[in-house]
C-alpha cells in the first residue's frame, strides 16, 4: 500500500503541477488537488485514479471553452477558471472520503459509490461550465 501511495503522490504531483502551470488551479487548489489525487489513487487504485483524471481533464477543458464569453459571468461570481481549495474539496472531497473508507473497510460497493460521486460532480461542473453560455437563465 505504501508503494501505491508514493506512486499516487508522484502522479498527482505531476498532474497538479501541470494544471497549476496551465492556470487551471490556484495555489490553494493545487494543494487540494495533490491531497485529493493522492488519497483517491493511493487508496482506491488505478480505476479510481482514471475516473478522477477524466473528471479533472474534461472539466478543465470545458472551463477554458469559450472563455471570453464566460468572463462577464465569472466576474459576477468573483470566480475565474482557476480552482481554489474549497472548489477542489467540493468536487473531490467526497470521493477522497470514499477512497479512505474503501481502504479501511474493503468492499466492491465503495467503487459504485465513488462512480456515483464522480458522475454527480462531473454533471454539476459541466452544467455550470456550459450553462453560463446560455442566453436564457
Automatic annotation (TrEMBL):
<dbReference type="InterPro" id="IPR002794">
    <property type="entry name" value="DUF92_TMEM19"/>
</dbReference>
<keyword id="KW-0808">Transferase</keyword>
<dbReference type="GO" id="GO:0016301">
    <property type="term" value="F:kinase activity"/>
</dbReference>
<keyword id="KW-0472">Membrane</keyword>
<keyword id="KW-0418">Kinase</keyword>
<protein>
    <submittedName>
        <fullName>Phytyl-phosphate kinase</fullName>
        <ecNumber>2.7.4.-</ecNumber>
    </submittedName>
</protein>
<dbReference type="Pfam" id="PF01940">
    <property type="entry name" value="DUF92"/>
</dbReference>
<dbReference type="GO" id="GO:0016020">
    <property type="term" value="C:membrane"/>
</dbReference>
<keyword id="KW-0812">Transmembrane</keyword>
<comment type="similarity">
    <text>Belongs to the TMEM19 family.</text>
</comment>
<keyword id="KW-1133">Transmembrane helix</keyword>
<feature type="transmembrane region" description="Helical">
    <location>
        <begin position="43"/>
        <end position="65"/>
    </location>
</feature>
